[in-house]
């Protein structure tokens, strides 16, 4: 059905968002273009 979009939403950014290549948490790393696309998808989902 057609649902109204949320009035407000919170997107939490944390340590997983700062994972760098070459570090012990490298398996969590997301390339910047993929990261930007993921944010775009979150925003589109909330609309």
Automatic annotation (TrEMBL):
UniProt superkingdom: Eukaryota
SUPFAM superfamilies: SGNH hydrolase
Gene3D superfamilies (alphabetical): SGNH hydrolase
A molecular-function term among this protein's GO annotations: hydrolase activity, acting on ester bonds
Pfam families linked to this entry: Lipase_GDSL (PF00657)
InterPro entries: GDSL, Iah1-like, SGNH_hydro_sf
Coiled coil: none
Membership in a protein family: Belongs to the 'GDSL' lipolytic enzyme family.
Protein name: SGNH hydrolase-type esterase domain-containing protein
Lineage, uppermost ranks: Eukaryota, Viridiplantae, Streptophyta, Embryophyta, Tracheophyta
């Amino acid at each position: 059905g057609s649902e109204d979009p949320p009035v407000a939403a919170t997107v939490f950014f944390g340590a997983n968002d700062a994972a760098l290549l070459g570090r012990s948490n490298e398996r969590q790393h997301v390339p910047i273009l993929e990261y930007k696309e993921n944010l775009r998808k979150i925003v589109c989902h909330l609309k």
